[in-house]
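Quarterly update, task 2.4: adenosine-5'-triphosphate-bound model.
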Amino acid sequence: MTLRASAVTWNRGGALVVDGVTIDPRPGEMMGLLGPNGSGKSSLLTLMAGAAAPTSGRIELDGNDLTTLRRKHIARAVAVVDQHAHTDVDVTVRDVVRLGRIPHRGTFGPSADDETAVAAALEQTGLTDKAGCLWRRLSGGERQRAHIARALAQQPRELLLDEPTNHLDIHHQLEILALIARLPITSVVALHDLNLAALFCDRVVVMQDGRVVAAGNPADVLTEDLVARVYGVRAVVTRETGGRVHIRFEPGAPTPPSDAPPAPPTRPHAVSSAR
Ligand SMILES: Nc1ncnc2c1ncn2[C@@H]1O[C@H](COP(=O)(O)OP(=O)(O)OP(=O)(O)O)[C@@H](O)[C@H]1O
């Protein structure tokens, strides 16, 4: 059993930003959530984190509707790294990472286990040397790693990450995603970099206009045709040793397939829903 979304819809400010999405990550797998800007990835993660209730459908944790569960119960199982975490308060990196232990805290306050988990999370994200620094003095990438460390200190079963690598240099992109892939937890990761998704994700789900338009093994899903239809970009996809795909993007508009219907003016690359 794990965290899953079943036929989830979210009407946000009058617009259907998540439209009938079902995703069912397998225990222990890393699932990539892909799709252009505004396709609904962050909205879906918000629902899966229990931060908002879907308009229809269900988010389930171990078969229970998330809206019926206590926040502390959810926080012991599910950790979230979102895009916009910010604070102006003078807290240290270690203080930020310690926040991850709040759901586990008993009546007697912090325990030795809490400090062990915090130290391990700092180590895993390469932040041990920065533990005493003020969070607001960190670079964008270091802040992002501190938030990942906070989520790891939470020792979750399920990890939801919204573009966790967008501020990271290439070394830390590879290191953080390799770490997440290695952890024996289920993760759902919104990513813009299709090559990183191909490199690390067990499965990918591609969203467009709030819907799932493709899902499966990255090598099966990330085709030249899909990149053209969903992103409106020409790409050359090559298969490397071991079956992994590599995507090279090319300038210029993709050639539409000869049987493609005329593109509507506002959504030039819309494809039908895979629901
Ligand atoms: N607070 C909000 N109220 C109303 N609509 C919103 C709100 N936040 C986002 N939206 C809309 O929901 C849609 C999906 O946005 P969302 O942030 O989920 O997409 P995304 O795939 O994560 O995009 P990006 O890749 O740019 O982060 C967009 O059309 C966006 O304008």
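Highlight for this quarter: The domain at 3-250 is CATH 3.40.50.300 (Rossmann fold).
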